[in-house]
Amino acid sequence: MSRKKNRRPANLSREDYHHILFQGRHWKNGWAKRLREHPYCGGYIPQMTLHREIHSKIHDVPTPNGAECRIAVEALNSWLEAGYISLDDPMERKIEMIAKCFRAKCPATTSVLDWQREVVLKFYQRG
User: Fold this and answer.
1) CA quadruple 32, 38, 41, 44: dihedral sign
2) What's the whole-model pTM score?
3) Are 101 and 119 in contact (CB under 8 A)?
4) Strand partners, 15
């Protein structure tokens, strides 16, 4: 006989941490790791809906070279210090500002970040 497991209903409002720059295995060294772990490069989002939707549509964010990642870390730090950005910014603004760091020299990274931002915007526009 099989046993029935006590399962709780899914909590659709549960949030977990989303790294904007993923998969972690491609962002685990040097300046790429420092950028991925930067406090501006992630945030809490609904797990069962938005988080799953992002990862079901986007497999990976291409990793720029170390020099470009260092420039991005320095840009984010200076923007935070100047008050141009805030750690409390909504996810779509964070993605937009990270993409801004790569727009001139890393089109593949920028393209995927722009796509990720669109997924987030559409999710929140649905209500």
Assistant:
1) positive
2) 0.89
3) no
4) 46
Give the pair of three-digit tokens for residue 63: 């990793």
pLDDT, mean over the chain:
93
Q: How many CB atoms lie within 10 A of CB 127?
A: 4
Backbone angles phi, psi at 15, to 5 degrees: -115, 150
Nearest to 76 by CA among 46, 96, 62: 96
43, containing H or E segment: strand 42-46
Q: Enter the tokens of residue 47.
A: 């797990």
Residue that is written with structure tokens 């099989």 in the block: 2
CA distance readout (Å), 49 to 52, 55, 124: 6, 10, 11
Write out pLDDT tens, residues 43-62.
Answer: 999 999 999 999 999 999 99
